[in-house]
Write a structure and sequence with these properties.
Length: 284
């Protein structure tokens, strides 16, 4: 289970498996510690779910203050439940406008950029090459998992950065668990002939439904890429079972906030890249 951490009294979960990576800052935030109310209480980080804009802005400021990372250094995607990977090279000075960031994973070796994934049941997966110092954040709902997005990210790390699977460390964050995730045949069929399917997709024959274990499906994909089992840590939390701690899309019936999960390579000098042209990338 990911241990609980406090950064200036803002709670989050921080994976033990990254403890040896002193070049990293990361957090799987919860819904606690923010200012939003009711369905969005309290640390809702999404502007798109019907929450008051000024409250979401306050939540972003709280996050930035808690981790002492300027807001301009956070990068949020337009997550689209696909398998597109946004690669950020150290020399990239201009990114597309935020509206063009239709991806579900980010890979970078650039220091000072806090790359983010928003979730409320989907799986946030963090991958780190501890030797090459390349980091990746992945949004893996059932569609992304069925598209094997983690496998594609690891292959990209191998091809473009020379990452070796034995040097990759993975943290699989809080998401809806097998306990709560009943799916229909359309979802189950999307996994086709995926390897080890019987270890994460369980038929409920009488109902023509399946129970889907998304964290385990992602763990298997990462394992099958050659990442050692001891390098992979699961959060141990189901978002739907723990709605006092996490936003859950299914658990709420659809009206709820989004928690933020972010990772950054610590910088040794100030990073100005994301403020070029007065663009910001944390704001959707
Ligand atoms: Zn559950």
């Amino acid at each position: 289970m990911f241990p609980l951490a406090q950064n200036n009294s803002l709670p989050s979960l921080q994976a033990s498996v990254f403890a040896e990576c002193d070049f990293l800052t990361h957090a799987f935030c919860t819904r606690q510690g923010g200012t939003s109310l009711e369905d969005y209480a309290s640390l809702n980080m999404s502007f798109r779910e019907g929450d008051e804009e000024f409250l979401v802005l306050q939540n972003w400021s709280k996050l930035a203050d808690a981790f002492a990372i300027p807001l301009e250094q956070f990068l949020v995607l337009n997550q689209v439940h696909g398998d597109g990977i946004f690669v950020i090279k150290p020399q990239d000075l201009n990114f597309p406008s935020h509206n063009e960031l239709n991806y579900d994973a980010i890979v970078t070796n650039r220091p000072g950029l806090a790359i983010c994934i928003k979730t409320a049941d989907c799986v946030p997966v963090f991958l780190v090459d501890k030797v090459k110092r390349v980091i990746a954040v992945v949004h893996a709902g059932w569609r992304g998992t069925a598209l094997a997005i983690c496998v594609k990210v690891i292959r990209l790390m191998q091809d473009q950065y020379g990452s070796l699977p034995q040097n990759i460390i993975a943290a699989i964050g809080p998401s809806i668990g097998r306990c709560c995730y009943e799916v229909d045949s359309i979802t189950a069929d999307a996994f086709g002939t995926q390897k080890d399917k019987e270890s994460f997709l369980f038929p409920q024959t009488a109902k023509n439904k399946w129970l889907l274990d998304l964290p385990e499906a992602n763990r298997r994909q990462i394992l099958n890429c050659g990442v050692p089992e001891t390098n992979i840590e699961l959060s141990g939390y189901c978002t739907m079972c723990n709605q006092d701690i996490f936003f859950s899309h299914r658990g709420s019936g659809g009206i709820t906030g989004r928690q933020i999960n972010f990772m950054m390579i610590k910088e040794t000098k100030p990073c100005t890249v994301t403020t070029l042209n007065n663009k910001v990338y944390w704001r959707e």
